[in-house]
Specification:
The chain has helices at 32-35, 72-93, 106-123, 131-134, 139-142, 150-166, 174-186, 203-206. By secondary structure, the chain is mainly alpha-helical.
């Protein structure tokens, strides 16, 4: 007896055509979010059926530690320049495929950028401006309604690299800042398209791009 409730696939369907919530290792359910995407079948209800249905164990991401920076960066940049940095990065993101994840309405987009800027200001030492207004960050949970996969994270990080160059971020603080946002960016991923380890971009590998 097959105890697994399997996902229906069209003949010839490949990995690129699967939805982000589908299994990348087999045709079995391997995350709870997949259940909502499956049609209810007459003889195989999602819950409470005649047979046992197994949802396989899975760890989709092992999150690395995140070294939040000291307040040295805030003392050098100040709140206004941090906000300008966040705005600059979001303007560049709009020109990428990640841009579609943001609100189309200009006012709503501004609010989203302001909230992100609040987080950066607080994280860099500017006081509890984010948590006092919005609560704990919990990046993955906050972004869950917006599907963000590994490739979106790659774009986000690449655009931050471009931003840091274009705003002439202080070289003496680049390493500390990068060592924070690189692992932090992994915590925004809430959809997986493969089960490979998340690609890392360590400072030792990227510093040459900043002429440091």
């Amino acid at each position: 007896m097959d105890l697994h409730y399997k996902i229906k696939r069209k003949k010839g369907k490949n990995m690129q055509n699967t939805t982000p919530n589908q299994s990348c290792q087999s045709d079995r359910i391997n995350s709870f979010t997949q259940i909502a995407d499956l049609p209810t079948q007459p003889n195989k209800p999602r819950f409470g059926g005649e047979e046992v249905r197994v949802v396989e164990a899975m760890i989709d991401i092992i999150f690395p530690s995140v070294p939040f920076p000291s307040n040295k960066i805030f003392k050098v940049l100040g709140e206004q320049k941090i906000r300008e940095m966040v705005w600059h990065q979001h303007q560049l993101l709009l020109k990428t495929k990640v841009g579609k994840l943001f609100p189309a309405n200009a006012e709503a987009f501004q609010m989203a950028v302001d909230k992100s800027a609040d987080f950066f200001v607080e994280a860099l030492g500017g006081g509890d401006i984010f948590t006092s207004a919005h609560g704990e960050p919990h990046l993955r949970i906050r972004h869950f309604k917006i599907p963000i996969d590994e490739n979106d994270r790659e774009i986000w990080l690449a655009i931050y690299k471009k931003t840091l160059k274009e705003i002439a971020f202080p070289h003496e603080h680049l390493e500390e800042f990068w060592n924070w946002i690189e692992p932090l960016s992994i915590r925004m991923i809430n959809r997986r398209t493969n089960m490979q380890n998340i690609k890392r971009h360590y400072w030792s590998d990227v510093k040459k791009e900043f002429d440091v």
